[in-house]
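Late entry, evening session. Most of the bench is empty. Finally got around to the prediction I had been postponing all week. Sequence below, unchanged from the version circulated by S.P.
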Amino acid sequence: MKRFTTLLVTCLLGQFSFGAVHELRTYVTNPGKLDNLNARFRDHTLGLFNKHGIKSVGYWVPTDGEKSKNTLIYVITHESRDAAKASWKAFGSDPAWKKVARESQVDGKILAKRPDSVYMNETDYSTDWKNGKTEKDDVFELRIYKAAKGKLGKLDARFRDHTIRIFEKHGMKSVAYWHPMDEPDSKDTLIYIIKHDNREAAKKSWKDFIADPEWKKAAKQSGVGRLAKPPAATYMKPTDYSAIH
C-alpha cells in the first residue's frame, strides 16, 4: 500500500507539464478480460511505466454500453516524442514486463486488438487540474471536436476566452485540453476531458450551458460556425488506480 500511495503522489505531481508530450491510449479487451487488464495495470504496468520514464496521468473505463465491459482509456506523459519512443522500446523489452504479460494471459489474450494511440500537445489554455473531494457518482467526459477547415484557431479562441469560464459557471470542471500532434488531426481536432458531479448533473449542465445567453453570444461571434461533425463524447469512471479522480 505504501508503494502504491507513493506512486500515485509521483503521478499527480507530474501529471500535466507544458512542453511534455501527452499520449491518449485506448485498449479494447476480449470478452471478460477487462478485470484482468485492470489488475495488470494496477499491480504491474504502472510501476513499470514509472521505471521507464512514462508518467501516468489518468485511467478511466467508459460507463455505457459494450465499452463499459471491454475498454480502458488512459493518458500518460513523456518528456518528448523521442523519449516516448525510447520508453516504449525499453518497456516492451523489459524482462519484468515480458513475464507479467506472459503470466497474465495464461487463460487467453487480454487485448482484442492493438491499442489506439494519439500523441498530443497541451493547449495554451489547458487548466491546472487538482483533485478535490470525490464522490462515487463523479463522472468524467472525454470529448473530441473536429473543427471545420481553417477554424481550429477560432475554436481555441472561443474555449480560451469564453467556453471554459462558462463551463465552470454551470458546474463543469475542466481537466485538460489537447491537440493531436500528427496530421491530419493536428489541423482540426481538439480533445478534452471535463468532470461532472454525476450523470444527471452532466445532463443539466449541458442543457443550461447551451441555453445560456452568454454562450449563445460567444458562439455567434466566434466565427467557428458548425463543427465538421458532431462532437464525440464518452462518459467515464476513474479506475481505483487512477491518479486523477
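Two things to note before I forget:
Confidence is low (pLDDT under 50) at residues 1-17.
The two ends are 18 Å apart (CA to CA).
Will write this up properly tomorrow.
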